[in-house]
Amino acid sequence: MPRSRRLDPAVVRARLTVLSDRLHRNEADADLAETVDAILAPRGWELLKKPAKPTTAEPNVALWMNKSIKEYLEAKARQEAKDEAEETGQPAKDAATILAAVVNEGWEKFLSGEFKPQKPLRSARGSATPKMNLNVRPKESLGQQVQAVCPAKSKELGWEVTPGLVAMAWLYSEYGITDDDQLGVTSPEIPVLDD
């Protein structure tokens, strides 16, 4: 059997066109011909992509912060999850679930007026302080409510308020993150989990 030519886009398109013509000749294969024609149409290849699986997970909120703070927050959340599991006898939640609940609480307090955030500080651009995203999945509906009041709160507070910055400010206040920690001058001490 002869070796086939390399399947480049022109060859594939030509072969699909021939296939479509052959299928159109037989009325019993009209549905197959229609399918091949749909794939040959502009952007028809998108029909071949697997559909995205529906998910019930809340959308991710990425919070850009110093790596040491991220690691500290995750360690504290793991400790809280472990302590809660010991008290309740239930399996421990993951750190992301704990942190999402904390962010939800902060957003609720922000919306009710109980929490007035301080603008999170950033270490100097180009400093040696490594940064990473802390990824949390708080309630999307709360995030939308926070987003709706951000323009008014920005005018009131004198800085651009966003749901992410409110979340960071709340996490920092709840977990005792200092200005020096935020600026990269110091690092919060990461707790060691007892096994």
Oligomer: single chain
- The overall pLDDT average reads 88
Main sheet: strands, sense, barrel:
2 strands, antiparallel
Residue runs with pLDDT of under 50 for 5 or more positions? none
Commentary on this structure:
With 195 residues, this protein is mainly alpha-helical. The chain has two domains: 9-48; 61-183, no CATH class. Helix content is 53%, strand content 6%. It has seven helices and two strands, in the order H-H-E-H-H-E-H-H-H. It has helices at 9-25, 30-40, 67-88, 95-112, 140-157, 163-174, 179-183, and strands at residues 61-66, 131-136. It has a two-stranded antiparallel ribbon. Helix 3 packs across helix 4, helix 4 crosses helix 5 and helix 4 packs across helix 6 (163-174). The chain is elongated and about 75 Å long. The mean pLDDT is 88.
Per-chain topology:
Layout: H1 9-25, H2 30-40, E1 61-66, H3 67-88, H4 95-112, E2 131-136, H5 140-157, H6 163-174, H7 179-183
Antiparallel strand pairs: 1-2
Summary keywords:
7 helices; 195 residues; single chain; mainly alpha; 2 domains; plasmid; two-stranded antiparallel ribbon
How would you concisely characterize the structure shown here?
Keywords: Plasmid. This protein is mostly helical.
